[in-house]
Amino acid sequence: MKYKFILWVLCVLMVGYSCNDSSESNPPEPPPSSFNFVSLTVNGVFTGFSYMGVNEKPIVKLTFSKPIAQNTATNGLVFKDAGGNAVPYTLSFENGNTTLVIQPSMNLNYLTKFVVGATTNLTAEDKGKLLTAVAVDLMTAYDASDKFPQLTDDELLTLVQKQTFKYFWDFAHPTSGLARERNTSGDLVTIGGSGFGVMAIVAAVNRNFITRQEALTRLTKMVDFLTTKGEKFHGAFPHWMNGATGAVIPFSTKDNGADLVETSYLIEGLLVARQYFDGTGTEETALRDKINVLWNGVEWSWFRKNNENVLYWHWSPNYAWDMNMPIKGWNECLITYVLAASAPTYSVPKTVYDEGWAANGAMKNGSAYYTITLPLGPAYGGPLFFAHYSFLGINPNGLKDNYADYQTQVVNHTKINYQYCVTNPLNNYGYGSTCWGLTASDIPNGYTASSPTNDVGVIAPTAAVSSLPYTPTESMAALRFFYYKLGDKLWSTYGFYDSFSLKQGWFSNSYLAIDQGPMIVMIENHRSKLIWNLLMSCPEVKTGLVNLGFQSPNL
């Protein structure tokens, strides 16, 4: 009996030893470890985590450090548009299930943003989880098909002028006939933009969009309003006024009085109209006389502020000279000094131009950008409106003084702007030989003066189109692109909308008088030199340019 008990104890011990031995040789499985994202391609290319201009059915490949569990992969993947809506897609696997191949099931919309990626819910075959989420931003390409039937270039130029002209004709303020600042401005009208509109009206008569009598009636209405109702300060108008009452609408708190630069754009346009309506009839004679009253009433010399050798931009009846903005070059204000020197009354001497505007030559540049030498102004030339506003009326061809050859200035400034967009150092989607032009315009949620040194990815059609006289080949290529390729989004009631960004898939729905006007006028200068010939025919302007030391075949 004792012997059997001993055997039983030995058996128990052996069984226990056997169990312990089994436990030590087969330990429990460890929990699954996380895994990592390794690489990606979009249509076979890797350029980071953001892709512009992709096709409608891009192939996105995401590679990870572990094989992915096929039956759970979709739980960890994301494909959605900018609004957060899910995009249906197909999924396949490569490289032993380490690479996921994702493609939309249907064509994606053009110029639309999407996100493709994996969340930390993505599961490997060993049940491990993705350590860090990955997201790939996609922007689809624009639709490269033509949106309108083909026209000859000449027909297209006429169409752009005619459609854009509607802004100044159909949308003019009903009481004053002046140009609204923008298409949402109500009673707010712009003095400088109205000057551009006057020149646009002259071009419209030349193109038979309206009759000479229709233009005469409208211009008389505008001039009568400016004469009898428009607030003036030492003969100068404010930047903005109420188109129904003529009262100042402040541009800013202290900018509630005279704006000499805006006034110069208005006078530039009125002198063009005066020269065009040269008939001996009562109405045309009266229009000329009324324009001369406004022209002679601007006290240019008073804006020297205590006889300084510089002109000042602003004066306020409440804040006097507090804005303290001397008008110095190089920028858009050459016309201000030319008219100040040309004025039959209240003119300024050459010393004001030399010491104030030209700063005795300090406005010179002389550096080369893209091997193109820029005579005047800031690096890369600044926004392109510098080459437009003054030269709507002043003909730069053959124009020279002690500081520059102005034909070289405006042409080279434009070519530098063009080359910057072609070179595209910031890789803004869409920039190139047919999509270029940086100037002041609306941008998403704001407004800025775009230039090569202030590039926010926004193109303004007015920049390239208004440069037609300087870069006819490059500008015409851009105009065709804007109309044929982007016209479904960019072309509407009053011609081209103000601006767009292919990089952001954004198109403005705004029109600005100061951007619409130069397009009409500079297309006309490109085609006939009409507006240039008219302003340069003014005897006062000829005298003023000569007094400032300019030489020109047009003097």
From TrEMBL:
InterPro entries membership: Glycoamylase-like_cons_dom (IPR019282), SbsA_Ig (IPR032812)
PROSITE patterns registered for this protein in UniProt: PROKAR_LIPOPROTEIN
Residues of the SbsA Ig-like domain: 53-123
Keyword Signal: yes
UniProt keyword annotations, A-Z: Signal
Signal peptide range in chain numbering: 1-20
Pfam families named in the record: Big_5, Glycoamylase
Domain Glycoamylase-like: 325-539
Name of the molecule in the record: Beta-glucosidase
Organism: Solitalea longa
